[in-house]
Structure formats: structure tokens, C-alpha cells
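*** Fold description ***
***
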Amino acid sequence: MGILSIFGISPKQPVALYGLILLGDGCYEREVVGESHYQDALERICGGRTDASANLTCLARLSPEPTNPHDRNAIRVNIDAFTVGYLSRKDAARYCASFRASPRPLQPVWCNAIIRGGWDRGSRGSGSFGVWLDFTWPIAARPRQAPRPSL
């Protein structure tokens, strides 16, 4: 279950719980890297593996990791509080450059994401999960408010 379904929100109308949401064009062209290390988390997010491939639209949180020992520009990608990978080095460097002049450059932001794959067909094989993000260059963002609880 993705975070969007908790609030009954259509994936085409994402609402960040706080902060900024990056705007995309619906193409999901930014592939997350390192997902092979987070297959268990992706399986939990998708509710397990099935004969069919996952195709789950959700919301991803992008968090800078300036103390990451492998890349000072590292941007961690989380979905439903689970780390699922990182932006590629090229995308992370471009992302950091876009936010460097921001008044809050190390704040996390949100964007639409899609998880695909993760099928398991028994003796016929299985596939890994992959994650793609929907935001465009140059980065455009808008502030979003948390949904108000209904009383």
C-alpha cells in the first residue's frame, strides 16, 4: 500500500505531507539506482511478489545525504519510510546544484514515483523491482500542505 492510498488521493494529484513537491511531466524518466540492495523493502511496499509485475504509483521522498562517504551529493530515495535507492550520481549533482541557492538546501522534497517489476513465477523465474521518479529539469517545485483531517 502506497502513501497515496492511505489518504485516498489519486496518484495524478499527489500531496506531500510537508515541504515541496517536484513537478513532473508524467514520464517517470529518472531511474533510481541501487534498488538491488533494497528489494526486501520494495517487496513490503508492494505487498509481496505475485505472478504479475508490480505497477505501483506512489510518493517518494528525496533526502540529501551530504555526509554520505561515497558521494557528497548523494540523494536518498524513500517510499513509505523505507529507503529504496538513490538518485544517479549525475542526477544527484544536478539536483544539488538546483537547490544550492535555496534558503533550505538540505530539506527533503517529494515527487511522484512508480515501482515496477518484482514478479515471481516460481520455476519460470522472478524479476527485481525497479523505481522511477517523475520530475523534470530544470527542477520546479511548489509548496504543498498536509491534507486536513476530516472531523
